[in-house]
User: Which sequence fits this backbone?
């Protein structure tokens, strides 16, 4: 087998998310509520196939047809007869599992394509059931080209759109007070005039909301993108309403239904307001077009829906952190004027995931992402406990780039330290900091005659105006910049003994947590080089770019705080070792993060795109000069990289008056089977609609 960043290895980690105990503790009514929310999420999750790439939905349908007719174990005999070895057949199963786990044929974490680790002559053509061959002809050729997502490939835009089109469309959307979150953009040219179609995701189909002349171009705004799937989402949310625990949940679902029916982001924002008010639910959920990481321009949201059950013991710790927030926020290294006027105490719960539909599962979430709501009405934080329990387990023999005497310590304390980092990152990272705004009526949310830039001492001279948002202003760097700011908050505040005590860490143990948290961050910065593309000088993953930036900041701090050296490994191949001087974390390290974090916040608060971009892109540069040859180190990282784990999730079914939970083994075959059984009543209709939606636009990427 060929070792490549474009293959998923046969030994990739695949773990089942255990939610059995949490689900069984729910009342029958709560189980019904969770079931219908899960159904809505799974139908909506299929939208990601269409958002990701033109061929993703076709490949998904092909795999569904194959495995619905023959389970993985049965298909193995046909594959063996066709000449595949056991290793090659496992490679095919891993590819299929990867397609399901990422909801597309690009890695959700890194945006590189993965292709079957098979010779082309052994692709499925020779052993799939005849009924699937027609689908194969539509997607087979696309499986192994266009290896990195971006404009021209990502299906958020037609293939003829470039960065200039994305920027121009954003100007139009801003002029109409329209959010890009639930849109896609398609460009044509008629009689020499640029014509753009802005499609809104909605159950109402083929409805034109208006045609607008804008700077010598024409924009048409139409409803009906993903109409079949959006309607399925709404049908299940309607059923979930019957089992809602309170009025806030009912109103929340009503607004989501209105949003997904009509394509209204404002209705989704209203639903999010009710969601924030729904404090401490037993069954927690959120659904919609949420994260903008994968939009090449950084403004459009990928569909996501999750359903989870509260872990009361761990949630108690997070509640204590929330109670301490007003004491901890003044510790952050920016002036009081740059912090929110009032800290709106959010829910912060630890959840066991029942369903997470989308392209991947994070460790924690801070939502909603709407700046106007977050700034003045609040937000919620969640930590996904059963994900943390399996996602970050590390085997010593696979642990790279650390000294031997750090490895045992790292394995022992990585879980507890990451729990602290996630808590601080989500609550006080994403939950902190003020945006200075002048609204449409000219009203300021700050005193423009008094607020000064702490870096220059001068009155601030820039701010957000009208409908401008963080995402629309900082666009391509917004996601990574914000993740970097939140990571820095976590590093900075984990030095606080009160924080460590909240999580149950005192004395020497607390110091080990701090050390491993910082060590994990600088190691992650090195690992982040996997997600840099030298040819385009671009980063493919927001979090890993953020961690590389932090590594650069801490290396720049000097005084021996962080060491990074290249060497030859025991196997004779290039290797590297990263070290951290724990005696300098509270001095050199804290001071470096303090200065950098203040700069990040000032640029963000004041909408200083030029200054923020210069700062962030400067530290993001992967250079060959200076003390470290980062391009050469990237080759070493690729040589020794470990594939990101995949998760197998349960299904729920109505049996009489009860809900049945069906779990699957943590393997490629188990992950495949979970998807084969995910749509028991209408699988063929769903697949036909997916094919129709993709074929309708197939010419847009030719």
Assistant:
């Amino acid at each position: 087998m060929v070792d490549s960043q474009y293959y998923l290895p046969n030994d990739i980690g695949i773990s089942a998310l255990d939610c059995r105990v949490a689900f069984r503790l729910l009342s029958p009514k709560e189980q019904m509520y969770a079931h219908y929310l899960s159904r809505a999420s799974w139908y909506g999750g299929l939208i990601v196939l269409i958002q990701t790439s033109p061929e993703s939905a076709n490949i998904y349908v092909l795999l569904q047809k194959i495995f619905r007719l023959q389970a993985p174990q049965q298909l193995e005999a046909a594959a063996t007869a066709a000449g595949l070895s056991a290793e090659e057949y496992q490679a095919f199963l891993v590819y299929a599992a990867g397609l399901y786990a990422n909801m597309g044929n690009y890695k959700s974490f890194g945006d590189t394509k993965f292709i079957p680790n098979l010779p082309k002559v052994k692709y499925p053509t020779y052993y799939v059931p005849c009924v699937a061959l027609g689908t194969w002809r539509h997607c087979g050729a696309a499986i192994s080209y266009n290896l990195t997502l971006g404009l021209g490939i990502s299906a958020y835009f037609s293939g003829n759109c470039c960065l200039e089109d994305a920027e121009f469309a954003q100007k139009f959307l801003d002029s109409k007070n329209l959010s890009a979150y639930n849109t896609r953009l398609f460009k044509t040219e008629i009689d020499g005039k640029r014509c753009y179609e802005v499609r809104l995701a909605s159950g109402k189909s083929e409805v034109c909301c208006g045609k607008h002349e804008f700077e010598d171009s024409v924009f048409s705004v139409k409803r009906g993108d993903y109409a079949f799937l959006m309607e399925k989402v709404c049908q299940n949310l309607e059923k979930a309403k019957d089992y809602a625990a309170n009025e806030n949940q009912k109103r929340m679902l009503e607004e989501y239904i209105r949003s997904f029916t009509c394509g209204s982001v404002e209705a989704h924002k209203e639903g999010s307001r009710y969601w924030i008010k729904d404090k401490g639910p037993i069954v927690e959920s959120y659904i919609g077009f949420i994260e903008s990481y994968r939009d090449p321009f950084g403004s459009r949201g990928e569909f996501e829906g999750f359903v989870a059950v509260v872990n009361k013991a761990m949630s108690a710790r997070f509640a204590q952190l929330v109670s301490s927030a007003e004491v901890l926020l003044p510790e952050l290294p920016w002036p009081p004027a740059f912090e929110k006027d009032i800290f709106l105490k959010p829910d912060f719960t630890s959840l066991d995931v029942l369903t997470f539909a989308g392209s991947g599962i994070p460790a924690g979430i801070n939502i909603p992402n709407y700046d106007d709501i977050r700034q003045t009405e609040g937000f919620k934080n969640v930590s996904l406990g059963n994900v943390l329990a399996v996602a970050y387990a590390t085997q010593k023999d696979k642990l790279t780039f650390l000294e031997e005497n750090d490895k045992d310590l790292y394995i022992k304390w990585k879980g507890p330290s990451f729990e602290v980092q996630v808590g601080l990152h989500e609550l006080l990272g994403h939950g902190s900091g003020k945006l200075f705004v002048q609204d449409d009526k000219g009203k300021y949310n700050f005193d423009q005659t008094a607020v000064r830039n702490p870096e220059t001492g001068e009155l601030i001279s820039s701010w957000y105006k009208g409908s401008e948002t963080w995402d629309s202003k900082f666009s391509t760097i917004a996601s990574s910049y914000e993740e970097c700011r939140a990571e820095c908050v976590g590093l900075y505040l984990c030095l606080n003994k009160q924080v460590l005590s909240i999580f149950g860490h005192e004395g020497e143990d607390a110091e080990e947590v701090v050390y491993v948290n910082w060590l994990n961050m600088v190691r992650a910065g090195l690992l982040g080089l996997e997600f840099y593309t030298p040819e385009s000088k671009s980063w493919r993953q927001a979090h890993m770019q953020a961690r590389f930036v932090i590594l650069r900041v801490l290396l720049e701090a000097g005084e021996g705080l962080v060491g990074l050296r290249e060497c030859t490994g025991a196997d004779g191949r290039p290797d590297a070792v990263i070290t951290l001087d724990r005696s300098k974390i509270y001095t050199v390290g804290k001071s470096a993060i303090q200065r950098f974090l203040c700069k990040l916040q000032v640029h963000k608060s004041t909408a200083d795109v030029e200054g923020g971009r210069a700062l962030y892109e400067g530290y993001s540069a992967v250079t060959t000069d200076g003390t470290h040859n980062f391009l050469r180190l990237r080759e070493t990282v690729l040589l020794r990289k470990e594939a990101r784990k995949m998760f197998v999730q349960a299904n729920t079914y109505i049996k009489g008056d009860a809900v049945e939970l069906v779990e699957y083994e943590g393997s490629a075959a188990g992950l495949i089977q979970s998807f084969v059984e995910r749509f028991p009543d209408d699988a063929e209709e769903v697949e036909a609609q997916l094919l129709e939606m993709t074929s309708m636009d197939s010419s847009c990427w030719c």
